[in-house]
Structure formats: C-alpha cells, structure tokens
Amino acid sequence: MESIIKEGTPKTPSIRFDAKQGIIEIKGRSIPENSIEFYKPMVDWLEEYAAMPAPKTSVNIHLEYFNTSSSKCILDIFKKLEAIHKAKNDVEVSWYYEEDDEDMLEAGEDYESIIRIPFKMIEVED
For residue 63, what are the CA distances in angstroms to 33, 67, 73, 91? Predict the structure, then answer.
C-alpha cells in the first residue's frame, strides 16, 4: 500500500499516512479551498488501510488552526479510524495543542467525546 506524504502549505497541513509503520500525521493549518477534495484521498486510503492495518496505528494530530469544513473532514477520518479500532486493532490518537490554545484543546476533547478511540491530549509549549 502506498503512503501519502504531502508537504504543508499556508492553507493545507502536511500529511503523512504510512501504512508500513502505522503512522498517521496531520500537522499545520487546514483551511483548504475545498476541504472535501483535499481530504478525500486520506479517507479513501483509510478505507483500504482498514483491510490490513498495522499492529498499532499511531495518529498524531498537531493543527494550529482548522476551518469548519476541515473539522467535518477530520471527523470523517476519525470515523474510519474508529472502525479500525472497533475491529480489535490498536489505535491511539495524540492530539497536540499549544499551551494557551483553549480552542484547540476543546476541539480535541469534542472529537474524543464523539469517537471511541483512546485520545491523549498533549500540551506543547510555544
């Protein structure tokens, strides 16, 4: 299975979806022109990955900002991961947020309350 590696831009996050290592990372800002179009390859990739996931899937989300349409797409990604977790696979989400960014902490807590996957909230200093 091919990995997805994308460099971040001022409007899109850097992406690393690595099936062999079981690492999924989204970092940066997510305000793409068309969020659904931007995130569709990742959602499709997870659909395929679910058939043969790594023994442990580590998900690292380190966003400094995302818009409303991105939040829906991120939820779609989490739903795919939740299905992998429900199939008795080890999935863990690390949600990174800046120490003074209450909104990003809250966003992570909101996802954690919706999705049944273990979440770790990790505060990073500026």
Answer: 17, 11, 14, 19
**What is the four-CA torsion angle of 77, 69, 123, 116, rounded to 10 degrees?**
-40
pLDDT confidence bin for 125, thresholds 50/70/90: confident
Q: How far apart are CA 63 and CA 12, in angstroms?
A: 10
8 A C-beta contact, residue 36 and residue 47:
no
Q: Which residue has the tokens 């091919």?
A: 2
Q: What is the pLDDT of residue 81?
A: 98
SS3 per-residue string spanning 73-94: HHHHHHHHHHHHHHCCCEEEEE
How long is the chain? 126
List domains and CATH numbers for the chain: 13-124 (3.30.750)
Q: How many percent of the chain have pLDDT more than 70?
A: 99
Please give the average per-residue pLDDT across 80-101, as a whole number.
97
Q: Note the pLDDT of residue 122.
A: 97
